[in-house]
Amino acid sequence: MNPPSSRNALYYLIELIPYFCFYLFLLASLLLTSLSHSTHREKMSCTEPTLNTPLLSSFPNKTDYSNQDPEPLTKPKTRHQSNNILISIPHSPNSQTPYKCLATIAGNAGPISSLTLCGEFLFSASSTKDITVWQHPDLRQFAKFGHGEGSVKALVAMGNRVFSAHQDGKVRVWKVSSRSENAFRLVASLPTTRDYLGRCLKQSNYVQTRRNHRRLWIEHGDSISCLAVHGDLVYSGSWDKTLKVWQMSNLKCLESIRAHDDAINALTVYDGILYTASADGKIKAWGKRNVMKNSHCLLNTLVAQNNMSWNAVATCLNTGIVYAAGSDGHVAAWQCELEKEKKVWTLVCDVKAHDMAVLSLCVVSDLVFSGSGDKSIGVWKREMGGGLGKLGLLRGHEGPVRCLQASWYRAGRGYVVYSGGLDRSLRVWWVPQEDILGDK
């Protein structure tokens, strides 16, 4: 008969058997996942060579159509099921109404939630899982792809990859392949299974969520509302009030920051500074602690109005000015300057732009476009020092204007503006260069 001490040790070992089995299962899953990813990458490299630019460009607002010949202006056209929409850009705005609606694509499956320009393509996302790729400016449908639960909230592209943010709290990564029948293939979902398994065993990797549930800090606990890309980093902002930093090269989550006291609605990056706009009425500027590390620290908090939500944020190239759109109809701007080796932000503009909330912003060259809940798009001229001078309004949407993109068109000496609304329509506008409009 075994002594009591030996019997207790035996019972202890028997109790540990389920834990050993669990750890062995996790280890096997990790090895299988790593092997499948490796095999998938090898197959992709052998059978699906990726397309290079100009399919996807890092600088969407530098599209040049200078080789195209201008044609007479045609009437706006509406597509219900056909994709054959051709847009002719006017050579000169010799009309009493210089702003033109060139085309309307109505009857989308859901409200347009996000637009992004990449090289010669326009990506549009809706409240459904689908992402549509259009050739611009003629808006020929090039491809359609999508995956995931809930709506697509944000899109961003870099190189030959497209990142989509979803209502289910996931960021999905799509790779551009050379197969015309399936040009965009899903290659990863963030956080990846490998990243998840590598952290799930340590209790210190879990955080308490607002619903009193524990989850890994690399996971978003609510819908992801916005994305931004800078260098090798992808930033995601969520309604769970956190900002997460992902490394593009290995798709790992590097950092999670409790950035705001309410939902994060918008992100933008300029000159290494990340701006987050939140429903808590604050815009925060973040920078890296040092050049070699990817950890971020708070540089400053920008406040203009009280008791309101910031819905959109955009930066102006070569000026350091950041524009923000508020739920009270205001558009504010801050100038970032270097004083005594320290960056300082000064409020330089705060105008009542719309009667209802401003939901979207786009800055191109000397113009700023603002989309509002009042169904209109404001056209503004950037003045010296960051101020805004109103040029006019674009009207036609039957619902709030949720997202905007714009591109300079050299041949027509003006701008092509794309707008997506909650009325399920995608519209294309022509805005001639401001100096042609005279004093309008």
UniProtKB/TrEMBL annotation:
Residue spans crossing the bilayer: 12-35
Keyword NADP (UniProt): no
Record region (Disordered): 46-78
InterPro entries named in the record: JINGUBANG-like, WD40/YVTN_repeat-like_dom_sf, WD40_repeat_dom_sf, WD40_rpt
Assigned keywords, A-Z: Membrane, Transmembrane, Transmembrane helix, WD repeat
SUPFAM superfamilies referenced in this protein's UniProt entry, alphabetically: WD40 repeat-like
Record has Transmembrane as a keyword: yes
UniProt repeat feature WD, residue ranges: 217-256, 257-286, 351-381, 394-429
Ranges of compositional bias, category Polar residues: 47-69
Pfam families the record matches: WD40 (PF00400)
Name of the protein in its database record: WD40 repeat-like protein
Source organism (scientific name): Rhynchospora tenuis
